[in-house]
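Hello Y.,

Per our agreement to keep a running log of every chain we model this quarter, I'm adding this entry. I've kept the format consistent with earlier entries: sequence first, then predicted structure.
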Amino acid sequence: MQRPLADEIRPKTLDEVVGQRHLLAPGAVLRRLIEGGTEANMVFYGPSGTGKTTIANIVAERTCKTLYRLNATTASLQDIKEIIADVGTLLAPGGVLLYLDEIQYFNKKQQQSLLEFMENGKLTLIASTTENPYFYVYGALLSRSTVFEFKAVSPEEAEPAVLRALNIEKERAPLPLAWEEGLPLQIAAACGGDVRKAVNAVELLSQAAQPRKGELFISKEDAAQVSQRSAMRYDKGGDAMYDIASALMKSLRGSDPDAALHYLARFLEAGDLVTPCRRLLCSASEDVGMAYPQAVAIVKACVDTAMQLGLPEAQLPLAQAAILLATAPKSNSVTEGIGRARADVRAGRTGDVPRQLQNVHADTTGFDNQQHYLYPHNFPGHWVDQQYLPDALKGVKYYQWGENKTEQAAKAYWEKLKGKEL
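Predicted structure for the entry above:
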């Protein structure tokens, strides 16, 4: 059985690893640790296909400990116990180096079972995860480890790996293998920073190469079909989803309609309507708010229309909502105001509801049956000066008028009616 090409060409030295220069460049901390034969516990965090397993293999070769591999998606507590049972025996006289892939799938009890042996140095852990370790890795285990973040590999960095894979396939091919100019960079760009995905694409394209004038030929059109939508990273409920949601929200807040449409498109390509709808609805109040109060109603109508239409037509009302929010005037006075009010409530600064605001049924007790509530609609301008906040909070200002045209117009109206500066 032939090994997958991606495994066959896996780098054996640090210099062969593509990307991760921030970790592996000469003088970088991780490189110095590996070259020094470190036995430190480490957590490798980053997207798939960025070299986490490769680096773990290189570390294993530089230590005298016996290497064990587990994948948390299939491993059990019994697997951990069996590995730990080998510690100190002839099977692992120098201790154990455990490479644990996808550690986020281990529950708390499974992760805790490693702690004692990590503490006394009999077990060195190298764990990898595609999810944020500060959310998914048990705190006590994380405190005994150093986290290194791996980045998606750029097309320029991935291109040499693609060329290497193509040349290997060229040597294996029954006929001369050729490819269209610019193909390696196209494959590297389409892999979305995942080198393994790029190499797998090369292997598949080589197997499907078309005979042409006595040779096998790989076209850019074929590469486009194989790598269709590969460049997009999206995992519903995972870090990628939350990163894109955050980027969409911040692009709306930053009044960049082009960026907003880009991140919206990534959700649409993934078939996720719910997440961008929630972000759009939230931004209407959080970032636009009183600067353009009608935005809430318009965005709600766009979201409702999108959910009724479904994809692909849903892209139109959602794009309309995104452009509206990104180009609308901004105000966070709503966010700031409710934030201040809730802070007071949480801190216990409340006080009794003023008598004139209490529910009218209180008058039936027979005590102080006059509330002295002034009905604003009975007064000029439908306003009358009376106290609404509890005595303990009298005079407190939660809402601050925004500098936008809409809020300043409202402020001017109420200053004229109330006869004082607000």
